[in-house]
Design goal:
The complex is a heterodimer. Chain A is of the alpha+beta class. Helix content of chain A is 30%, strand content 24%. In chain A, helix 8 packs parallel to helix 9 and helix 14 packs parallel to helix 15. Classes of the chains: A alpha+beta, B alpha+beta.
């Protein structure tokens, strides 16, 4: 009978709210939706990496007059602007005169018959005057050609703490290293897709697979030059995102809407796998150089890091990816002097974009490999060296953020080692490996991941969440946060039910539709549970206070009484909605100019341990066992949370050992699931997930963010284990058998 | 493909259906577009991901690789035919309870593969489960909760 007494769903594994629809095939994804008279749309893309468009001709035996055709000219002659509104607004919806990467959209076609449409697409001939392209990060940095702005640089950051230059000459050891990570395809199993209906009087409505309805909304407002209320964006059930549906849907939704506006008919555009793989965003490839000064007793004295990511041809989200990678580059260690200089540079490949971890997996990989190297130089074990440098409460990070939460990396390490038998295995493998063909190894990575937007990002976003009482006496959560498999619907219901002390069946989560829900920000950055969830909590509490204030609800109530009070309010007073707006936690100070201060409100802390077998005949490395131990505040739903970690670790194993993008003249040459290999059920080791709970005061029920964290630790842990097995240190991922062969043969192993 | 349409008769989820389609149209498209059985998903179109798995005459197939002409006279089961009315199949129930579905796009195919596995082998080992589901890719779960779901379904 007590709002804080009867029902406590937080901490319990409520089943997925939309689970039944998903297991029966009833859930409707964008390709499952049709409209009368709907046309199919397709994209004609650039065949060259960089050049001027000289001529477009429509050839073949195609009834061209039946087709709707849209080019940049259509946008230029409209009230809209030909760019995808995001950060720098440099990416056109349709190339106008110049192309800057292979597969860049040049022209759109729509027709009722999708088979004829495909034939037509192949019969559009585009002639180019080719310009010299830049394909690699190295060539871009070297300014082999200037292909973007006046220096190929989208964005740079400098983090400077103490003075590293004072340290090099006096330190006992200075260790340098260089590390590389490759591009990675998000490979959500549902390809990108959108449907649009548009006309000049009613505006534009778009349905699509997406993470961020309000990103699409903002982009379409600019593309059509229409007032905000004339653009409506609806998220359909989304078959995975992982960042791959963060910014890209703004482009695709715009294309479908352009065709719909011109044809006056609904237009559906669904990419097939090949198009999705070659044309859409991937994880930013990176190069990191480390220079580390240490004392002979194993204390970090100075760290200098140069972190560069390849942004591809247009800026998209590269500055923000770079930011997160930069801030995470020094990890959960205390070092008095740190300088991190970072850049995102342009190349003539399709723009790279968001992918779970968002720059952090790249810079953390480099750091953890470097620390193994430093430890070896010192003659310390990897764990002993880290123990001497783990950050502690009251110490400062690279951005001089004072850690005010309880953090105990030593204890995490102890527990992770206990769970894996780390020390015993280290010893046993060292003895066995000399006499067995298969070499065994065990390794770990220790790391942290900031939850929510970086620095002042959440303040700029100023997210809003609503709670609405329905005539049936239920509470509807109004938020733009999308369910993309991670459990938004379920977690929001648990948070709301916990705050109200009512049964979860009384909570509904509205479908993200910009007509109905406020802008609660994008579904990214491990922010949905922690940041938006907190707003869910305060919105439903506001609703409750209104009910109590009206006299319809007493301070203590049952679920049935709460329901009845909602019903009565709506009946006698009218609609009941309460909106809650983001307030930053106290004492969070961030300097955007100096990149110093409280980079994140809080961090998740983790130690991941990998055990591997390496076969020196086939040069294959197999992960045999994986333990993921993390402190993530309070766990709202143990099954969903473990599912996030397991899925993230599996993607990270793919990133480390399986997923190799083959580039040919700026184009992905293996854009098929047949030859871009992600881990299957037969490949994945047991992934054992453990949580430490340390409630975060400003998260709903004490929760922190967890979505991206599991992407960070696997690559360095696995490479550390491979080093343990083979005595060879590899410094790049993906680590394919060919690269292993070269180095292992050189070392006579 | 609009020309040379032929008539094809088959039983889909217990009902006799007559389809009018080009003989080379993919079974996947015919199920989705003509019969509105949109639970069967396209993930790759080349038989790698298993999202389009259906059972044809007792054998699980990738419907993106099956020309519809091949199903003349066949008995087909899709995800829509797995539950008995409102009563979920034990595998479906277990996927909900154990977190076997996240984004849900691979789930119909994964459920078809798991049901097929259990029909052939009521007590699979972990290795059997891994092998039985190796033709179905999932990008969300890392497969752990899917394995648990299959084990739970066996216990029901």
């Amino acid at each position: 009978m007590n709002p804080n007494g009867t029902n406590h769903p937080i901490g319990k594994s409520a089943p997925r709210k939309e689970g039944r629809k998903k297991v029966t095939g009833a859930a409707l994804y964008v390709d499952d939706i049709s409209f009368p008279e709907m046309l199919h749309g397709t994209t004609v893309r650039s065949q060259v990496a960089r050049g001027r468009i000289k001529n477009i001709s429509f050839e073949g035996d195609i009834p061209w007059d039946e087709f709707t055709i849209v080019t940049a000219k259509d946008i230029n002659e409209s009230a809209g602007e030909n760019y995808v509104a995001l950060i720098l607004n440099d990416q056109p919806y349709l190339a106008d005169e110049v192309v800057n990467h292979p597969e860049e959209p040049i022209l759109l076609l729509a027709h009722p018959n999708k088979y004829l449409l495909e034939e037509a697409r192949r019969n559009v001939r585009i002639e180019y005057e080719e310009l010299p392209p830049v394909f690699t990060l190295e060539d871009s940095v070297a300014k082999k050609e200037i292909i973007w702005g006046d220096n190929n640089v989208f964005k740079s950051f400098l983090v400077d703490k103490g003075n590293v230059d004072d340290v090099w000459s006096t330190a006992d050891f200075v260790v340098e290293g260089e590390y590389h990570t490759g591009a990675q395809e998000q490979l959500y199993i549902e390809n990108n897709g959108a449907i649009a209906i548009a006309n000049p009087t009613e505006g534009v409505t778009v349905w699509g697979s997406m993470q961020c309805p309000y990103y699409v909304h903002k982009a379409l407002v600019k593309l059509f030059g229409l007032p905000e209320e004339k653009i409506r964006v609806i998220q359909t059930e989304t078959g995975g995102g992982f960042g791959g549906k963060e910014e890209y849907p703004s482009l695709l939704a715009g294309h479908a809407a352009l065709l719909a506006m011109k044809s006056g008919k609904p237009v559906k555009m669904i990419y097939d796998r090949a198009e999705d793989m070659v044309a859409t965003t991937k994880r930013h490839p990176s190069r990191t150089r480390h220079k580390t000064a240490v004392s002979k007793d194993g204390k970090l004295l100075a760290m200098e890091v140069e972190f560069i990511v390849d942004g591809g041809a247009y800026c998209t989200l590269s500055p923000v990816v770079l930011s997160r990678g930069t801030i995470h580059a020094a990890g959960p260690y205390y070092c008095p002097n740190v300088r991190i200089s970072s850049s995102a540079v342009a190349t003539n490949v399709p723009p790279h974009g968001a992918f779970r971890g968002f720059g952090a997996p790249q810079s953390i990989f480099a750091l953890e490999r470097q620390l193994d190297k430093v430890a070896a130089t010192l003659g310390l074990t990897p764990d002993e060296f880290r123990r001497r440098n783990f950050i502690k409460e009251g110490q400062t990070t690279a951005t001089s953020q004072v850690i005010r939460e309880k953090v105990d990396m030593d204890q995490l390490l102890d527990r992770a080692f206990e769970l894996t038998g780390y020390h015993e295995k280290r010893e046993r493998f060292a003895k066995q490996n000399g006499s067995t063909r298969i070499k065994k190894g065990i390794g770990f990575a220790s790391f942290m991941h900031g939850a929510g937007f970086t620095g002042s990002g959440e303040v700029y976003l100023a997210s809003v969440v609503g709670a609405e009482a329905s005539a049936e006496g239920r509470v509807r959560i109004l938020a733009a946060s999308t369910e993309i498999g991670q459990g938004t619907n379920t977690v929001f219901s648990q948070i709301a039910a916990e705050a109200l002390g009512v049964d979860e069946s009384l909570i509904e989560v509205a479908q993200p539709d910009t007509r109905d829900v406020p802008n609660s920000g994008p579904t990214v950055a491990s922010r949905t549970s922690m940041v938006v969830g907190k707003l869910v909590e305060s919105a439903v509490l506001g609703l409750k206070q209104t009910l109590i204030g009206s006299g319809l609800l007493l301070d203590a109530y049952s679920s049935a009484e709460f329901q009845s009070a909602c019903r009565q309010y709506v009946e006698s007073v009218g609609p009941l909605k309460f909106f809650s707006k983001y307030q930053p936690p106290p004492n969070v100070v961030w300097d955007d100019e100096k990149y110093q201060g409280d980079a994140y409100g809080t961090y998740a802390w983790a130690v991941y341990v990998a055990e591997v077998s390496v076969d020196p005949l086939t040069y294959e490395a197999h992960v045999d066992d994986f333990v993921a131990l993390q402190e993530v505040g309070r766990v709202i739903n143990p099954v969903l949370a473990a599912g996030q970690i397991e899925g993230g670790v599996a993607q990270a194993i793919g990133f480390t050992l399986f997923e190799n993008i083959v580039w040919k003249d700026g184009r992905m040459a293996n854009g098929q699931m047949t030859n871009y290999i992600m881990p299957t059920a037969a490949d994945i080791p047991p992934i054992r997930v453990y949580f430490e709970e340390n409630p975060y005061a400003y998260g709903p029920g004490g929760a922190k963010g967890i979505g991206e964290l599991p992407m960070d630790g696997a690559a360095p842990a696995i490479l550390s284990a491979i080093e343990n097995a083979t005595d060879v240190s590899f410094n790049h991922v993906p680590l394919m058998p060919e690269a292993m062969m070269e180095r292992l043969d050189q070392n006579g192993r | 493909m609009a020309d040379s349409v032929t008539q094809i008769s088959c039983t889909v989820n217990g009902e006799l259906r007559t389809l009018a389609a080009h003989p080379l149209e993919r079974l996947l498209d015919v199920l989705r577009e003509q019969l509105q059985l949109t639970g069967t998903k396209e993930g790759c179109g080349e038989g790698e991901c298993g999202a389009c798995s259906v059972v044809v005459d007792g054998r699980i197939v990738n419907s993106c690789l099956v020309p519809v002409a091949q199903v003349e006279g066949a008995t087909i089961k899709t995800i829509e035919g797995v539950a008995s009315g409102e009563q979920l199949h034990a595998v479906q129930q277990a996927f909900i309870e154990c977190g076997g579905a996240q984004c849900g796009i691979c789930t119909p195919g994964m459920v078809m593969a798991a049901v097929d596995l259990l029909e052939r082998n009521a007590n699979p080992t972990e290795a059997d489960i891994r092998q039985g589901l190796a033709g179905n890719l999932c990008r969300c779960t890392g497969y752990m909760k899917i394995f648990e779901s299959v084990v739970r379904a066996c216990q029901k």
